[in-house]
Amino acid sequence: MIGMLLATFTLTAAPRLAAAGALTRAAVRLSAIALEERGLPYERCAVNLAEKPANFTQVYSKAVAFSPHPTLSRAKVPILEELGGGVPPLVESLVICEYLEDRWPASEARSAQRRAACRLFVDRYSAAMPYMPLLRAEEGSEAEAEARRALEEGMRAVDAFLCEYADGDGPFFFGESFSLAEEACAPFALRLMRVLPALRPQHDPASMLEALGLARLATWLDAVVQRPSVTSTAPPASDMVAASKLLLERMKGAAK
């Protein structure tokens, strides 16, 4: 069984996943997406991170090889626990995704070069597509204009990477195959396409992509956010927007 704590997942007859509350955290959702894509049976265990239960801290300590772990107060999710599998509980969402891909490949075997390009894409996407600075900036300010220019440059960079290195016979990085490139980026792509236009309609990503002529990235994003594994593990768009509003209010309060 694999399990994931939701902060925790456990694979049942395969894994278990532990997570905190609902699948509201992007880092937790990408692990859930990877499990769904492989059709693996798993148990999701919700964890209250404000009052961490003993069974959760015990699993976390095993994952980081400390008992008790000196930073246990900051123990986080997701954690993937594979019961009886001889594998330590896994923390860090990308580590979990790469483990699942290595053990249960979601697509046909790829060369080392193609796998490296896929992982580089994940790194490039996360670095090049920031949208929170747009939301944090005052509307009409120079900071907002700078944040928009940064997002546009990031969009151009990701589109160029896809045009150069992705397969051209389908919408995803590996053509018709939904891979680690999509699993690791999907929750963040979904927030970009749902939250940004809801809070700042003048910065609608779809309109920006069309104006910039970035058809390859637009096709990729559209296919990713419509993938069943992505939509089925995501909270309602209204919840995503409300959570982002709350986060922004907290950020503004902390900055005062």
Would you mind describing this structure in some detail?
The protein has 256 residues and is an alpha+beta fold. The protein has 2 domains: 2-103, Glutaredoxin, CATH 3.40.30.10; 112-255, Glutathione S-transferase Yfyf (Class Pi), Chain A, domain 2 (Up-down Bundle). It has helices at residues 26-38, 54-64, 93-103, 112-128, 132-136, 142-165, 180-199, 205-212, 215-225, 228-232, 237-255, and strands spanning 2-10, 16-19, 44-46, 79-82, 90-91. A 5-stranded mixed beta sheet has the order 3-2-1-4-5, sandwiched between helices. β1 and β2 form a beta hairpin. The termini are far apart.
Using brief descriptors, characterize the structure shown.
single chain; 256 residues; alpha+beta; Glutaredoxin; Glutathione S-transferase Yfyf (Class Pi), Chain A, domain 2; 2 domains; 5-stranded mixed sheet; 11 helices; 5 strands; 56% helix; globular; disordered N terminus
How much of the sequence is in beta strands? 5-15%
Helix content: 55-70%
Label the overall shape: globular
**Helix/strand structural class:** alpha+beta
Question: What can be said about this structure in brief?
Answer:
The chain has 256 residues and is α+β, with helices and mostly antiparallel strands.
Secondary structure elements and pairings:
Elements: E1 2-10, E2 16-19, H1 26-38, E3 44-46, H2 54-64, E4 79-82, E5 90-91, H3 93-103, H4 112-128, H5 132-136, H6 142-165, H7 180-199, H8 205-212, H9 215-225, H10 228-232, H11 237-255
Parallel strand pairs: 2-3
Antiparallel strand pairs: 1-2, 1-4, 4-5
Helix pairs in contact: 1-3, 1-7, 4-6, 4-7, 6-9, 7-11
Organism: Emiliania huxleyi (strain CCMP1516)
Pfam family, one: GST_N_2
Keywords: Signal
